[in-house]
């Protein structure tokens, strides 16, 4: 577009210059013809006659040609000004188009990031669900036809534990039964926290994906999760795990009831977990 405007300006300048040259030649012929006709002169061999002729022609044509040169210069300046204005407008349009292209590219990159994130997320979610299924499936070898989850819960709730720290020791003693599941869950939540691609709405995006994970987890597992992530020292290996649980209100559907009875073990759970971990839970 800019090249076309430049070529058009050059053509217009060439046309006006040609017209000026034609007019200049015409005026020259008229002035010379007038001189010979008015003064009835012929070709002379006298220097003085040619000097007089030159003075007449120069004095007559110089102001006219100077004025024509000025007009040509002004016309050229006007054309160049118009061309510069058109160039500025074209640059503005190009800049706007570039911005739109950048926005479109940004949107494509964001969509690709989201697609890659969700591919990995749902693969991890599948691993989580498989680990959860193994935790809840009957195990003839280790737990006498009970699931690992049932065995651990019976061990803890039949022990008469009054403090989360005591229950945590029992969880650690049976880490071979439930440790794998809790590690997988931590990795899923950690991945969401570090890689969620939802731009300025990062927190709500993370909450959405963590909510998907939470929807697969029942209260029986949440109760063990509370015990598993119990810690009071920020140097504890479970501290970051605990922060993720609090960040995503992961205990929003938690209930302290076991077999119809409220368990004293969970009576002071809010002393160890931030209130935000329970979201809008009306029980806690």
What does it look like?
With 284 residues, the protein is mainly α. The strands form 2 sheets. The protein has a two-stranded antiparallel sheet. It has a two-stranded antiparallel sheet with strand order 3-4. Helix 4 crosses helix 7. The chain starts with a helix and ends in a 22-residue tail after the last strand. 15% of the residues are buried. The mean pLDDT is 83.
Largest sheet: 2 strands, antiparallel
Molecular shape = rod-shaped
Helix content: over 70%
Any low-confidence stretches, pLDDT <50, length ≥5?
A: none
Give the oligomer, counting copies of the same chain as homo and different chains as hetero.
Answer: single chain
Quick overview:
With 284 residues, the chain is an all-alpha fold.
Q: Topology of this structure?
A:
Elements: H1 2-39, H2 47-136, E1 138-139, E2 146-147, H3 148-157, H4 164-173, H5 175-195, H6 202-214, H7 219-228, H8 239-247, E3 257-258, E4 261-262
Main features:
two-stranded antiparallel ribbon; 284 residues; 4 strands; rod-shaped; single chain
């Amino acid at each position: 577009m800019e090249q076309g405007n430049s070529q058009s300006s050059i053509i217009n300048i060439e046309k006006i210059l040609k017209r000026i040259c034609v007019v200049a030649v015409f005026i020259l012929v008229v002035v010379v013809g007038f001189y010979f006709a008015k003064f009835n002169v012929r070709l002379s061999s006298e220097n003085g006659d040619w000097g007089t002729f030159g003075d007449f022609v120069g004095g007559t044509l110089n102001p006219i040609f100077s004025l024509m040169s000025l007009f040509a210069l002004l016309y050229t300046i006007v054309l160049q000004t118009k061309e510069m204005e058109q160039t500025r407008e074209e640059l503005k349009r190009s800049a706007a188009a570039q911005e739109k292209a950048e926005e479109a590219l940004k949107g494509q990159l964001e969509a690709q990031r989201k697609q890659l994130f969700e591919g990995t997320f749902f693969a991890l979610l599948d691993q989580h669900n498989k680990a959860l299924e193994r935790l809840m499936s009957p195990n003839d070898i280790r737990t006498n036809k009970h699931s690992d989850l049932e065995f651990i819960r019976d061990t803890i709730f039949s022990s008469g534990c009054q403090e989360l720290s005591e229950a945590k020791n029992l969880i650690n003693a049976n880490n071979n039964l439930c440790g794998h599941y809790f590690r997988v869950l931590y990795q899923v939540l950690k991945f969401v926290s570090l890689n969620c691609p939802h731009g300025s709405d990062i927190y709500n995006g993370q909450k959405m994906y963590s909510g998907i994970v939470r929807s697969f987890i029942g209260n029986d597992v949440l109760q063990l999760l509370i015990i598993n992530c119990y810690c009071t020292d920020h140097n504890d290996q479970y501290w970051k795990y605990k922060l993720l649980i609090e960040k995503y209100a992961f205990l929003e559907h938690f209930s302290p009831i076991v077999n119809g009875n409220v368990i004293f073990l969970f009576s002071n759970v809010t002393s160890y977990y931030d209130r935000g971990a329970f979201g809008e839970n009306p029980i806690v």
